[in-house]
Amino acid sequence: MNVPTRLVTKMGHFCKAACLSLSMLGMAGVAQAQPEVELEAVDASAAPASKTLERGLKFFKDRDYYSASIELKKVVDGKSGDDDFGKQKAEYYLGRTMYDLKLYAGALAYFDRIVEAGDAHAFHGATLKYLARLAKALPETAGIYTRIGTYSETAFESPALEDVRDELIYLQGRHFYRKGDVDKALEMFGRVREDSVVWLRAKFFQGVTLAARKFDGPAALEAFQSILVVGEERGAFISSVRKRLKGADAKEWSEAAINKEITQFVELTNLQLGRVFYSVRDYDKAIKYFEKIPQISIDWPLALFEASWAYFMKNMNDKALGNIHSLGAPYFENEFFPEATILRAVIYYQYCLYDRALEAVADYNDKYGPLKKNLIEIAGKYEDQADFYAYIGKVRAGKGGIDKPTERLLLSALRDRTVAKSFEWVDELDRELKAIDRADKSWQSTAIATEVQQELEVQKSLAEASAGKLSRTRIDSLIAELSELSLQGTRIRIEVLGAQAGAVTGEAREELVAGATRSPKIEIDDEHFAWKFRGEYWRDELGYYRFRIESKCKK
Predict the structure, then answer these.
(1) Is 167 within 8 Å of 182 (Cβ atoms)?
(2) What is the pTM of this model?
């Protein structure tokens, strides 16, 4: 029977899940104002600043950012008589002004000009500090990695960048990872200092890169294990990181915040190690790491599902079925593992429990057949990607006019962090546009306000179309996955009907469990009790279910 083999190799689901977990590691957060360590450009040959530029800089120093932006815009537009250096200085401070007004996407638009100019811009190096800060303030979709990736590594060595150097190195590593430059990515991740707040992130990506792209298992294992060591010795790591933090960074990264970061990466590491050991068929170790994910973790249902495959490969089908049973609890109504139902059918087939195998296939068709049909209809709505984004926004708000099961399945597909970040980018642009609407009325009519507003509107339009396209792509992928699983269910049904008629192929016979084979007797220790499942789930029982299963195959 070919179906089980195809199902087992379908662990590409792991890769998809891994991407979801990896994409949770964006730097976005609340940007904090920090004491300035100036990285100012100096040009001895530059002409004296104009009165307009002087006024703009004084307004900036006095934190009158609206007035500063008006004067600095005049300089950039060539209306003040300043030379190129003066214009470049005004451009840099316009970016800083937008940043301090919390118009982060607006700030990025001005800093982008500096990045594109490269070393020809006097404030090219100074802009790095603000790119590092914008990486915290903006979603990953804003593309800060790409901007930092254009800089040479020597640019990071300035003493003025000491506080953000490790973040810049890590972000440039992410840039090379995205580009597929594995060696360069590994080099950058390896340069992040061990007492840096981003060391865990760099080490995790180092492990992922080694495992998935370099195919160096021992080195990947070493990288992941170093994270688990930090999990065991949290105090020392927290203390070393806290010693280096200053100002607002020290406030942002409290002991509690660092401890939370450690917990997150320990869980992600255990999940990833489970996948690594599964891929090399060391199922015992895979199970060991999957089962380290605690129930309170957002990844626990995923770990239960992935562990069920490892149990299946070890012929520990009592536990595989128990995990699948747990995933059917109402606590997981927003989680969908359609593959689990097909795996259940495969297990029953191998034990010649044909009625149960057919029942599992029917369960899949009854549940996912109508859902797939609904998804196809949804994916066909609105040719315009921005219009499709607007529709998905209604669905996310519970106003899409679709039934709850379809809505939950759709939202589960869109919880992919890459998709979520595309929505976050739209939300950020929308927030900034509303901030302009709430700004001082006299400023709203100025050239600088008009320019920033137009830039944000264009970016928002592009971001909505991108988010709509990405959402549709995810839905199409889910439809394709459900179609493939439906086909596998059909193959199982054909094999079962053939077996019931006494026609079992030689290949299929090799996969059947010997007649009268039973799952091992469940041993109960002094700290546990055995209860029969009577149709009601209890949260503290989840993950502990076992199935007593006996083969009905003929000897």
Answers:
(1) no
(2) 0.85
